[in-house]
Amino acid sequence: MASSILRFRKLCFVEPVKWSSSLGSESCQKQKNEEKQTYDAFKEQEKENPKGKRQKKQPKEWRCMDNCCRTIGYICTTWWLLLFLVNCLPANLPGLSVPEPPGARLKREGLTALHPVVLVPGIVTGGLELWEGKPCSEGLFRKRLWGGSFTEIFKRPLCWLEHLSLDNETGLDPPGIRVRAVPGLVAADYFAPGYFVWAILIENLAKIGYESKNMYMAAYDWRLSFQNTEVRDQALSRLKSKIELMYLTNGRRKVVVVPHSMGVIYFLHFLKWVETPTPMGGGGGPDWCNKHIKAVMNIGPAFLGVPKTVGNLLSAESKDVALVRAMAPVLLDSKTLGLQTLEHAMRVCRTWDSVVSLLPKGGDAIWGNLDWSPEEGHICDSFKERRTQSSSVDKKGNYTDDRGVIHLKEASKYGRIISFGKEASEVPSSHLSTLASKVGLHNTANISCGKVWTEYDEMSPESISKVVEKKAYTATTLADLLRLVAPKMMQRAEAHFSHGIAENLDDPKYNHYKYWSNPLETKLPNAPDMEIYCLYGAGIPTERSYVYKLSHSDKCKSIPFQIDTSADGSGINGCLKGGVYFVDGDETVPVLSAGFMCAKGWRGKTRFNPSGIATYIREYRHKPPMSLLEGRGLESGAHVDIMGNVALIEDVLRVAAGANGADLGGDRIYSDIMKISERVNIRL
Amino acid sequence: MSFLRRRKPSEKQHVAPSSEQKLEEEEKEHHSRKNEAKNKEAKKKWSCVDNCCWFVGFICSLWWILTFLYNAMPASFPQYVTEAITGPLPDPPGVKLQKEGLKAKHPVVFVPGIVTGGLELWEGHQCAEGLFRKRLWGGTFGEVYKRPLCWVEHMSLDNETGLDPAGIRVRPVHGLVAADYFVPGYFVWAVLIANLARIGYEEKTMYMAAYDWRLSFQNNEVRDQTLSRIKSNIELMVATNGGKKAVVIPHSMGVIYFLHFMKWVEAPAPMGGGGGPDWCAKHIKAVMNIGGPFLGVPKAVAGLFSAEARDIAMAKAIAPGALDKDIFHIQTLQYLMKMTRTWDSTMSMIPKGGDTIWGSLDWSPEEGYIPSKKRKQRSNSTEVSGDSGTESKSRNVKYGRMISFGKDVAEAPSSEIKRIDFRDAIKGKNVANNTCRDVWTEYHDMGFGGIKAVAEYKAYTAGEIVDLLHFVAPKMMARGDKHFSYGIADDLDDPKYNHYKYWSNPLETKLPNAPEMEIYSMYGVGIPTERAYVYRETPSSDCYIPFEIDTSADEDDEDKCLKNGVYTVDGDETVPALSAGFMCAKAWRGKTRFNPSGIKTFVREYDHAPPSNLLLEGRGTQSGAHVDIMGNFALMEDIIRVAAGATGEDLGGDRVYSDIFKWSEKINLKL
């Protein structure tokens, strides 16, 4: 500060002196002696020519500082000019005509708001704001910690992490910290400025007459387990009361519910909760759903879990993180920068119970065992292309053929959700045990470790090596793995979630709330008039299983496993890329998880769907945006971007305006979901 | 880019003097060229553009440095400075009471007043493109400057129905954000919310009952089902908070809106909410009215009559051009009037109770009022109380004449005023010619005859003002009559009072049957508040509003109750103490016909003290002004205590600074 002031003074004072040197004095040193004289001369000059005062101040030489200032000045001025021009621009340039939004088109068709709409956001996309914090968070009262611009991460990262963590034991607020969900439509219309989540859908709904009296965003704290949102915030009671209110004030029209991602199982939980009598549930009675809900339109539903979660819980990484690590190993490495970003992220994530709700459900019966998986025979996009190019007729015929499965002898073993080493992911199960573990283990010193606490610190190297020796884990054994590496987290979470398949749904134990969010352990409500839609994107490679390796960092507090990004499939195994096996899906949720319940588990009258609620599958094939102007694409199938998909919006609007599934045209399928579901063999 | 290009030629022709301004210098440079070849070349480059850019760049960098420093500064820095200057600040009430051990107990409902709630666009005309779900009202008001006409169009309601115009849907913002800040940095509820949060309140125990404050109260239910929403939310909060009753905190117009709600919720279903006669007793612990205009606000009259209040009249007097059509062709006031006259809610604040409450031509309850400054001096010096200071001139101020034409009329005894009844006057020909067509106000239908007649009547009391407004704006008042009433009920059991238009008038409704409920009247005093106006005809009225406040009417007397054409009394700058306090001080005190179940009432006044230190204290922690009072520490403490379970007695009962009890006594109303 002081130096800059000094510089400024120099600038203003020395410059006239220098200018006076141009009057004819020879050298600078002399000038300094004659400073007074020259200054007088300068003054004289000023009298002669008072109008050009600024001109006279011009220094003779380009000084670095001046240059900088001038450049900045140029940039600023140009920037302002451009900004001004942009603001002056008419909202619609004739050249950039945006295609008409579906809402406007449907309005012309005569659609108007009929059924009230409830939006249920998913994990991560909802905003969280601070209500009470530690001293380090001063000034953030009612400011968003999650969502918005995330500036606090950079300003005070540790403080931020502390406030977003939940209590390790209870899964509720840590003492002295209250972080709450932002309520209202603003909760999840935009995740970060410019990154829409629900905004486009809301805008289109508004076009046909929706407004805040018949549209409600059921925001909840997505870090908590579902039952805890009721315990702490009464979020479920609130949702019930809002639905009842909207039902009454809109002429007793039933509600259309539109959950997204994790919101889907959250709402599943709600459906059971509302029927259950009061101490544990909402006491709405067995016909509440039939009376109040017209349709549940699940967008990108994670019914049976998301494999991505496994990677997340095990090593706090998924495809994107692993890629970054592979490209710039220094960046995320704890040794170099001492930042331990991943460790911090993992520590925080593991306090969030809700993450556990997304673990794959249904075990081997759904996700496949060591040797078998419902998706086997899936042909990955890149691979498909290569094949069609090289050898055309015969093989192409094969893979479109139903029995194309047989053709691919060495299909990817998706059932092994985690395998240690590429080899372990490929060899037949009988050979698994013969694979020798090549990785030597490091002794971790426990004394010097800092504050970052993950449960890995309590694991002995022996148990880590035991983990690795098992080589491959399926959906069922995965739970054991997680229990081993994170016993406390799993203990906490398993009080709230269950991941199995029910043998007998009438068993009274299934009245407990921990089963409510698992579609394989609950019955749908008794609401024959209701409709359930599964709306999801397809055509994007989606993480399905991982190849892991031991992390080579011997520093303590580091995560001992990481995705083996060097494992790349070649030839027939084109689905393996950067240590991750891909299947069809919406980039986050595989079609199996999103579509199975609607395609098979609930189709017709089954034991999971005793009242025969009609189900519809609506898939939206992913098409990348044509041009940059389109933003995130009007026909995207990606997990979040699908909320801007024109076809999906149209479907939602039509249903909200009174149409039913048959009016929409029933199922609309692009993927192999029917085939995949057929292969899944569970009792219905 | 163009700047860069311009630089090059000047480099090439550096031998010749490039610009006239630099002529002399350039020549002198020629001499020194041999010595410092480098220098001269550089010097030539400094053109005017360069200089400007240098300057801009310098400012920018400085700005950035300062912003950076500001951001790097610890958040508690201003506090250190404050404490260094003024000594340690008192704890904000939330912190103080948290230390006392108070905890969130009763759920809290906020009811914002007129103007302070945000409104956002849900559907608009072509010109409002891109404003979907952006705030039209509240926030930065950026659109007012960008597209003023479009903005006025969207903010107006339909002239006939008082509901949305075709193709436009402007809706209230929901949630606490609706009225926490009115514009960035100008808090309304934010400080109170922050202090409540200290003792444990959060979103689930606080509810902002936002509504469209432009609509009449019943229309809010018709269009948005806002009243049903409040009912459902209170029920939900009471249920989820273990049956603890709600504390309701309405502010300004929200006070009478909530009065309307309490009647609505009891009334049976088609017209009301069907909550049954004991709904309020079951769900509401206390209603803590902040600055409540129970009996209306004289300001509203001026607003409706000539779209001006003291502030605008002053602006007009100081810079007569700025608001004048002739110079800028803007007709700001006319637009303003046209817009506000479509808002039914403004009519809810026309003074109620007529002459009985507000005074007649010769009498008014506040007569003898001496401005507080004077009062203090007097009590210091002569020990003569305000009551016995009969010799004071201020005693003669005739507040009852709410509008008088000319200062002499305002002061003359009633026998000397010749009044010609305006009610049957023929309105005469339409003044408006084609040029005024774009801005339509009902004045254009009045004609010269009508305007003359209005001015001839000379002086209007509160009762006559309703007639006056009927005369000058028949359509607006016809709309308003369906929703509001301004009289005093003779017999409250008359079945006609079941109609919703009486629900927001405390003098025409009974309070609900809820003996355990408490009603607080909390308001600021000690600020001169508009009470009566001196009007004149606008000299050049073509398509102009024909009346304006006579800003030249000033009192020479030191008391200065009359200033710039406005008579002021004690109040909170907007609501006179009479309107805010009378119901709780007298009409509802004990068991009266307006309060059959004997609900306890408390008057809590907060004497205004301007912020001692402008920079650091902001809008003051002891302010009594209508909106700024929401940051008053004493008021917040009262609210928090009640929310945490205290009763009115625990707070210390009444707390009175003004003469409200004396004035109330003078009002002769059957109770």
Biggest sheet features of chain A? 6 strands, parallel
Strand order across the largest sheet of chain B = 7-1-8-9-12-17
Strand order of the largest sheet of chain A: 7-1-8-9-12-17
* Low-confidence parts of chain B: 1-18, 321-329, 374-395, 431-435
Give the percentage of residues in beta strands of chain B.
5-15%
Termini Cα gap of chain A: 74 Å
> What is the global morphology of chain B?
globular
Q: Total number of helical segments of chain A?
A: 30
Arithmetic mean of pLDDT of chain A? 77
Overall mean confidence score, pLDDT of chain B:
80
Number of helices of chain B: 28
Distance between the termini of chain B: 80 Å
Unreliable stretches covering 5 or more consecutive residues of chain A:
8-35, 50-57, 330-338, 382-409, 436-452
- Compute the number of strand runs of chain B: 17
Report the oligomer: heterodimer
Which structural class should the secondary elements of chain A be placed in? alpha/beta
GO molecular function, one term (chain B): phospholipid:diacylglycerol acyltransferase activity
Catalytic activity (chain B): a glycerophospholipid + a 1,2-diacyl-sn-glycerol = a monoacylglycerophospholipid + a triacyl-sn-glycerol
Protein name (chain B): phospholipid:diacylglycerol acyltransferase
Family (chain B): Belongs to the AB hydrolase superfamily. Lipase family.
What does the secondary structure layout of this molecule look like, with pairings?
The complex is a heterodimer of chains A (about 675) and B (about 675).
Chain A: H1 2-21, H2 28-33, H3 35-48, H4 53-56, H5 64-88, H6 102-109, E1 117-120, E2 128-132, E3 144-146, H7 151-155, H8 157-164, E4 178-181, E5 190-192, E6 195-196, H9 199-207, E7 215-217, H10 226-233, H11 235-249, E8 255-259, H12 262-275, H13 288-292, E9 293-299, H14 307-315, H15 319-327, H16 334-337, H17 341-349, H18 353-356, H19 363-367, H20 381-390, H21 393-400, H22 404-407, E10 418-420, H23 422-426, H24 461-469, E11 472-473, H25 475-485, H26 487-494, E12 531-538, E13 540-550, E14 561-563, E15 576-577, E16 580-585, H27 591-601, E17 614-621, H28 646-656, H29 661-664, H30 673-679
Parallel strand pairs in A: 1-7, 1-8, 8-9, 9-12, 10-13, 12-17
Antiparallel strand pairs in A: 2-3, 2-4, 5-6, 10-11, 13-14, 13-16, 15-16
Helix pairs in contact in A: 1-3, 6-9, 25-26, 27-30
Chain B: H1 2-12, H2 23-32, H3 37-45, H4 48-72, H5 77-86, H6 93-100, E1 108-111, E2 119-123, E3 135-137, H7 142-146, H8 148-155, E4 169-172, E5 181-183, E6 186-187, H9 190-198, E7 206-208, H10 217-224, H11 226-240, E8 246-250, H12 253-266, H13 279-283, E9 284-290, H14 298-306, H15 310-318, H16 325-328, H17 332-340, H18 354-358, H19 372-381, E10 403-405, H20 407-411, H21 447-456, E11 459-460, H22 462-472, H23 474-481, E12 518-525, E13 527-537, E14 547-549, E15 562-563, E16 566-571, H24 577-587, E17 600-607, H25 614-617, H26 633-643, H27 648-651, H28 660-666
Parallel strand pairs in B: 1-7, 1-8, 8-9, 9-12, 10-13, 12-17
Antiparallel strand pairs in B: 2-3, 2-4, 5-6, 10-11, 13-14, 13-16, 15-16
Helix pairs in contact in B: 6-9, 22-23, 24-28
